[in-house]
């Protein structure tokens, strides 16, 4: 069974009413992974999403709603936490790809969790890095 890793932008799009097509696609991916109990995120995704939800959404989350979403959705999916090995792998991926450290850390987290797919809008759709295939869920080729 495929083990998908989700970048922060997938969670952000799931609340973005300005683009209903992307919103529905993101919601479907998240809902499917919750049903199958196979979706994975890292501490970084939790932090980034909560920062956006509490400060940058058009309609920001009230703190109580952020806590609830965190406990019901994010924390159950969170399997990757920081350590020296993860940071070193992030640096290696940044060096190999030329990507920024935080994007590289997402890929390193997906690899550390044994995920075969990384859902993100931010990187090169179809490229495989350290055993993780990058898929843009909004790219026609990635739609399933």
What attributes does this structure have?
144 residues; Rossmann fold; four-stranded mixed beta sheet; two-stranded parallel sheet; globular
General description of the model:
The protein has 144 residues and is α/β, with parallel strands linked by helices. It has a single domain, classed as 3-Layer(aba) Sandwich (Rossmann fold), CATH 3.40.50.1010. 53% of the residues lie in helices and 12% in strands. It is built from six helices and six strands; from the N terminus they run βααβααβααβββ. The chain has helices spanning 8-13, 20-36, 43-55, 63-77, 84-97, 101-112; strands at residues 4-6, 41-42, 78-80, 117-119, 128-129, 132-135. The strands form two sheets. A four-stranded mixed beta sheet has the order 1-4-6-5. Strands 2-3 form a two-stranded parallel ribbon. β5 and β6 (132-135) form a beta hairpin. α3 (43-55) packs antiparallel against α4 and α5 packs across α6. It is globular and about 40 Å long.
**Topology-level CATH name:** Rossmann fold
| CATH architectural group | 3-Layer(aba) Sandwich
Uncertain parts: none
- Helix and strand composition category: alpha/beta
Short description:
By secondary structure, the protein is α/β, with parallel strands linked by helices. It is built from 6 helices and 6 strands. The strands form 2 sheets. Strands 1-4-6-5 form a 4-stranded mixed sheet. Strands 2-3 form a two-stranded parallel sheet.
């Amino acid at each position: 069974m495929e083990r998908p890793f989700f970048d922060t932008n997938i969670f952000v799009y799931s609340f973005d009413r300005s683009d209903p097509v992307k919103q529905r696609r993101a919601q479907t991916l998240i809902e499917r992974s919750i049903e199958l109990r196979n979706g994975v995120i890292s501490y970084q995704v939790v932090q980034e999403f909560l920062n956006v939800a509490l400060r940058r959404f058009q309609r920001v989350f009230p703190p109580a709603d952020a806590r609830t979403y965190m406990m019901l959705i994010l924390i159950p999916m969170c399997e990757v936490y920081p350590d020296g090995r993860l940071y070193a792998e992030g640096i290696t991926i940044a060096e190999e790809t030329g990507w920024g450290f935080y994007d590289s850390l997402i890929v390193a987290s997906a690899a550390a969790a044994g995920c075969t797919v990384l859902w993100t809008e931010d990187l090169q759709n179809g490229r495989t890095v350290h055993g993780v295939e990058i898929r843009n869920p909004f790219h026609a080729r990635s739609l399933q």
